[in-house]
Design brief:
Number of helices: 12
Bound molecules: phenylalanine
Radius of gyration: 42 Å
CATH architecture of the largest domain: 2-Layer Sandwich
Shape: rod-shaped
Order of helices and strands: HHHHHEEHEEHEEHEEEHEHHH
CATH topology of the largest domain: BirA Bifunctional Protein, domain 2
Strand content: 15-25%
Number of strands: 10
Length: 348
């Protein structure tokens, strides 16, 4: 066989073998066999030294062409084998077991607030809100807390310097609202009677933090004003609400109390469903749990908002969302609501 034929044969063989390259191993084997210093191509160059002079130009030319061709084909085969390998590594293994995904859930306070809203909107109450930085007038004065009246001490108030910049140190007439009752005033200022709304929101009190009290908590206020609203309607509405929230077997007790903005006033207790009245730590051995304050809107409050106190009457109530949630689930530390420890939150 002449040299030229030998070269052609090598070319065919190498081309066929190039086409079969898939893995980096194939690449290396090909290189060793054909292109390395001891490979078949190098051997042919070696053989060329022995052939007659006049054959050299033709053989040399062909050999060089074949080498250039093979080297460039080899390079592209090498690259595609490499990217194939990378793709292989990044491929998703569908047989690997999945990671468990935790589904978020609503905070227990949100759940209670939503339940309270559901119950009251179902009997025709609208929803209103107001600012958390409240002026003294709405938080106290218009609710019939006269200036310097000791009733203001009922609520440990955070006073704020506000508005901040313009008036130097502020007016001293602003507070972090201590209750949602100020929203009652705002609603009545902006609406003619009848009004029937609940007002959920966050409130603040400067109390020592303990298992029973925190510097902030949430309330839902209620207000109904119309002609001839009676105490019996207040009792009926609250009773309906408590049965919806705690179950139809719940028993209620209205205890006389005092709030500057309601007259008469009451606090509402439900029978302790933890010990069913026998007496336990949660109900402090009384058999009863306090859930809210309420009363008939004081005529003085109507005067402040420009309602005719001879024409209309109304009732108001206010409850703490934390307190109700604590009672509902038998939780013994209010701070748990604010730690946001998922081990706690996951239980609701
Ligand atoms: N604002 C009262 C409190 O925070 C609750 C209340 C609201 C009482 C409405 C009567 C009427 O304690």
């Amino acid at each position: 066989m002449g040299m030229l034929e030998e070269i052609e044969k090598l070319k065919e063989e190498a081309t066929a073998s190039l086409a079969r390259i898939k893995t980096p191993d194939d690449v290396e084997n090909f290189r060793l066999k054909f292109l390395s210093r001891k490979g078949s191509l190098a051997q042919l160059f070696e053989e060329m030294k022995q052939i007659p002079k006049e054959e050299k130009p033709a053989v040399g030319k062909l050999l060089n062409e074949v080498r250039t061709q093979l080297e460039s084909d080899f390079e592209s085969a090498r690259q595609s084998a490499e990217s194939e390998k990378k793709l292989e590594l990044s491929r998703i293994d569908l047989s690997v077991p999945g990671r468990k995904r935790y589904i978020g859930r609503k905070h227990p306070l949100t759940q209670t607030a939503e339940e309270i809203k559901r119950i009251f909107t179902g009997i025709g109450f609208g929803i209103a809100d107001g600012p958390e930085i409240e002026d003294d007038y709405h938080n106290f004065e218009a609710l019939n807390f006269p200036p310097d009246h000791p009733a203001r001490d009922m609520q440990d108030t955070f006073f704020v310097k506000y508005p901040p910049a313009k008036e130097g140190n502020g007016t001293g007439k602003y507070v972090l609202r201590t209750h949602t009752s100020g929203v009652q005033i705002r609603v009545m200022e902006n609406n003619k009677p009848p009004v029937r709304v609940i007002m959920p929101g966050r409130v603040y009190r400067n109390e020592a933090i303990s298992s029973r009290s925190y510097c902030l908590f949430h309330q839902v206020e209620g207000l109904y004003v119309d002609k001839n609203v009676s105490l019996a309607e207040l009792k009926g509405t609250i009773t309906y609400f408590a049965r919806e929230l705690f179950g139809s077997g719940v028993r209620l007790r209205f205890r006389p109390s005092f709030f500057p903005f309601t007259e008469p006033s009451a606090e509402v207790d439900v029978n302790c469903f933890i010990c069913s009245g026998k007496g336990c730590r949660i109900c402090k051995h009384t058999g009863w749990l306090e859930i809210m304050g309420c009363g008939m809107v004081d005529p003085n409050v109507f005067k402040f908002v420009g309602y005719d106190e001879k024409e209309v009457s109304g009732y108001a109530f206010g409850m703490g969302i934390e307190r109700i949630t604590l009672l509902k689930y038998g939780i013994d530390d209010i701070r748990l609501f604010f730690d946001n420890d998922v081990r706690f939150l996951n239980q609701f």
